[in-house]
Design a protein that fits this description.
The chain has 450 residues and is of the alpha/beta class. It has two domains: 337 residues, pyruvate-formate lyase- activating enzyme; 81 residues, Arc Repressor Mutant, subunit A, CATH 1.10.10.920. Helix content is 40%, strand content 21%. The strands form five sheets. The protein has a nine-stranded mixed β-sheet, sandwiched between helices. α1 crosses α10.
């Protein structure tokens, strides 16, 4: 069977594994008091390790019709200051629980974080930093829409110790850009990239999406050539998930406008080959990096970690997430904030504004460890037959299938993903995830693998 045929065979609905268990599998077996007690009980570890912080800034001036993020479309910038006040109110609750703390990393996501003025971003971050310590290896990163970002944004954030930016390109093809309502020029991306490097940003990431409406192999090849010319340090290469029943804006185009599945697979394989042939290394799921980039070095040195912010070299057990819809992780529990802006702002006046969560069982922690190993290093190892991974491999039809098709090999109590398994690493994880298999057989829960 050819590579594209095997990928087509495995192009089924599987979790993205931003968490384990995946969000649709959370049991909501928690209370706000449980969450606060959990942080208090782990305080000594938190003090030793420090924390990661994610801040969700949901506003955008225009709607990108392909987007699946939690966002609010408005051109009214009067919303900035009240929203920042709510985020800082939420941070006050955590400061009371944690006291003075070391911050290892901060990521600003959205939405369009640069919707907020440089002055307001400076105020927000200065207040987060206040009375706390930035670690010596602190990393600050932000997601950027090139058309709505000023050089002053980069200058302000660099002065606040930010050293990474992620630029959402998706595609340079004008027909595709018009269809997804995300227009930006190559010159805008080049200008931001060059200025970031001039300011001393250590890493520039580009986001690309394959499977978008009206994408063609020739058009996307040109986009990738332009990307390679600019030589970003990292590339995130995502599959477009068409879910118009969840995200109504995707009804602006139809499935007939999308590349057929076989062509979408070819877009992925072409992109992957072009990246690898031009000096990039495969890093986990959907990501590529230059050999000198810290992300690839961390993978080689087994320091890579993945959390709700994506891949990171800063491994802390505690991720505090601020803002509407954001998800926190203590290592033992996940909690998610309220998803609607107005409801979030009302709730935060009284308490930490969470509405959903999950307390992990010891078995789930064990499975999570192995899934994290697989999506970070393409391999994992078990110690003995008491390990839950050993149990999950037994009498498992999905697992037997991926072994037969050559996605994995077993050596010395170690599961190793083959080259095919690296491409389909979500399927490898899914084969070991019996609970998600069972739940998914009852109703669709996840996006397609490719």
């Amino acid at each position: 069977m050819e590579l594209s045929e095997l990928i087509l065979k495995y192009n089924i609905s599987v979790p993205r594994y931003t968490s384990y268990p995946p969000v649709p599998m959370w049991k909501n077996n928690f209370t706000l008091e449980d969450w606060e007690n959990n942080l208090s009980q782990n305080l000594e570890k938190i003090k030793q390790q420090g924390i990661s912080i994610y801040i969700h800034l949901p506003f955008c001036e225009q709607l990108c019709t392909y987007c699946g993020c939690n966002k609010r479309i408005t051109v009214n910038h009067q919303v900035e200051e009240p929203y920042i006040a709510s985020v800082l109110k939420e941070w006050e609750y955590y400061k009371r629980l944690l006291g003075t703390i070391t911050i290892r990393e901060i990521h600003l996501g959205g939405g369009t974080p640069t919707f907020f003025s440089p002055q307001n971003l400076h105020y927000l971050l200065s207040e987060i930093y206040k009375d706390n310590t930035l670690s010596n290896d602190f990393q600050g990163s932000i997601e950027i829409h090139p058309h709505f970002s000023k050089l002053e944004h980069l200058e302000t954030l660099r002065k606040l110790n930010f050293d990474r930016i992620s630029i959402g390109i998706q595609d340079f093809d004008k027909k595709v850009q018009i269809a997804i309502n995300r227009t930006q020029e190559y010159s805008e991306v080049k200008r931001l990239t060059e200025y970031a490097r001039k300011l001393g940003y250590k890493s520039v990431n580009y986001d690309l999406v394959y499977g978008l409406p009206f994408q063609t192999k020739e058009g996307f090849k040109n986009t990738i050539k332009q990307v390679i010319e600019l030589k970003p340090d990292r590339i995130a290469f995502y599959s477009y998930a068409h879910v118009p029943w969840i995200k109504a804006a995707q009804r602006k185009f139809t499935e007939n406008d999308l590349p057929p599945t076989t062509e979408k697979i070819q877009l992925y394989l072409m992109g992957r080959e072009m990246f690898l042939n031009n000096g990039y290394k495969d890093v986990g799921m959907d990501h590529f990096a230059l050999p000198e980039d810290e992300l690839f070095i961390a993978r080689q040195e087994k320091r890579l970690h993945r959390n709700f912010m994506g891949y990171t070299v800063q491994h802390t057990d505690t991720l505090i997430a601020l803002g509407v819809s954001s998800i926190s992780d203590s290592g033992d529990m996940y909690v998610q904030n309220i998803k609607e802006v107005e409801e979030y702002q009302l709730s935060v006046e009284k308490q930490i504004p969470i509405f959903k969560g999950h307390t992990l069982t010891p078995k789930e922690k064990n499975i999570r460890k192995h899934i994290l190993n697989l999506i970070c290093y393409f391999e994992t190892q078990w110690e003995d037959e008491a390990d839950v991974i050993f149990e999950l491999m037994k009498n498992n039809e999905q697992w037997e299938k991926i072994q037969q098709d050559g996605l994995v090999k077993i050596e010395n109590n170690k599961i190793i993903a083959t080259d095919l398994g690296k491409i389909l690493i979500r399927n490898v994880c899914y084969a070991l995830d019996k609970p998600s298999q069972t739940a998914h057989s009852e109703k669709p829960l996840f996006s397609k693998a490719i």
